[in-house]
Design goal:
The protein is α/β, with parallel strands linked by helices. It folds into two domains: 248 residues, Type I PLP-dependent aspartate aminotransferase-like (Major domain) (Aspartate Aminotransferase, domain 2), CATH 3.40.640; 131 residues, Aspartate Aminotransferase, domain 1. It is 37% helix and 15% strand. It is built from twelve helices and twelve strands. Strands 1-7-6-5-4-2-3 form a seven-stranded mixed sheet, sandwiched between helices. Strand 2, helix 4 and strand 3 form a beta-alpha-beta unit. Helix 2 runs parallel beside helix 8. The protein is globular and about 75 Å long. The structure holds pyridoxal-5'-phosphate. Pyridoxal-5'-phosphate binds next to helix 3.
Amino acid sequence: MEGTKKIQTIAVHGGTRRDDSFGAINEPIYMTSNYRIPTDGTPVDWSGTKSNIYARNRNVNQMVLQDKLCALTGAEDCAVFASGVAALTGVFIPFLNSGDHAVISEVCYSATNLLFRKYLPEKYNIEVTFADTTDTEAVRAAVRPNTRLIHLETPGNPTTGISDIQAIAKIAHSVGALLSVDATFAGPICLFPLQLGADLEIHSMTKYINGHGDSLGGCVLGRKDVIEKVKEIAMVNYGGILSPFNAWLIARGLVTVPMRMAQHSRSALAVARFLEASPAVRFVWYPGLKSHPQHERAKALMHDQYSGMISFDIKGNEQVHQQFLNELKLISHAVSLGDVESLIVYYDKYSDKLPHYPEIFKEGFFRFSVGLEDADDIIDDLQHAFESCNLM
Ligand code: PLP
């Protein structure tokens, strides 16, 4: 079906199974830790992931979600995990061995940063080079003969920087390394990293894929041989698997992700344009704005939908920034992103993450996840807060 149908149809029907027991249209939740094992002498692969034996190796709601994600992204296979971080370690642990070298995006999610700055080098003897992956030549200069993984985020969290996935995939493959792309900021709709040459596509499903802010989850997508390794090593033996209930919730959220991403993208562009024109604003980065440093690249990669994530800062001192957050009525100060409601988080200038970001971010900034409220109402909320802070 996937070959001929449009993305919204695939999101509704792709990967869905028929319930032949009762004819239920919706997938039941299989709350079981065990499955019956054949007693007729059929060989049993006790620790494998290809048959239903024990819910850590494979469970039905997990499989349904994996199939739906494959249908949506065109991936051959998928492994789902209990969180985005579990999905990330589900890539880093299987594909990096002691003595290997990895090239990592300077701008990346804080757990990824800490894993590569501290735990993976100190505990597992992994050599790491951090690079500005929006600068393809910096990535080329960073690879070594023992580089086994290049990992980047596009758009990067929190700056929204865009890396050239196609060019970096070629660099990775030239030294026999894999390219993994954390595309959480783009959702599974605004960007298709696997089609651009990435070997692994990772999402925190906690964000856009689920979209409703009510469960955590993560996924890794890629070729069958690559994902089989992720399942066997990370799912079965590290064990951070997704529960049947959360798999069911996320599969329900995924059905509307094409429509949500289209609306998030439309509203974020309107909000970004408002911010760019406002005298209250010190800077704004949104991949859909012509002023974004990698706008042309974003245009080539993102098919005119730039997702809902904006980075910006206002003028004024720390007190003004605090007051601005207090004045927002519709938009909540919270750390997550990709939910139906607008969420904003402030990185003050003392944050230990700031040294890794481009110069303009170093005085502090807001990361804004534009929700599904009407764009005019979101803009009114910002405008009112600017006026209350005497920024206009
Ligand atoms: N990757 C990115 C880009 C993220 O923004 C996040 C969380 O904010 C994660 C991974 C981690 O996801 P989770 O919180 O589901 O573990």
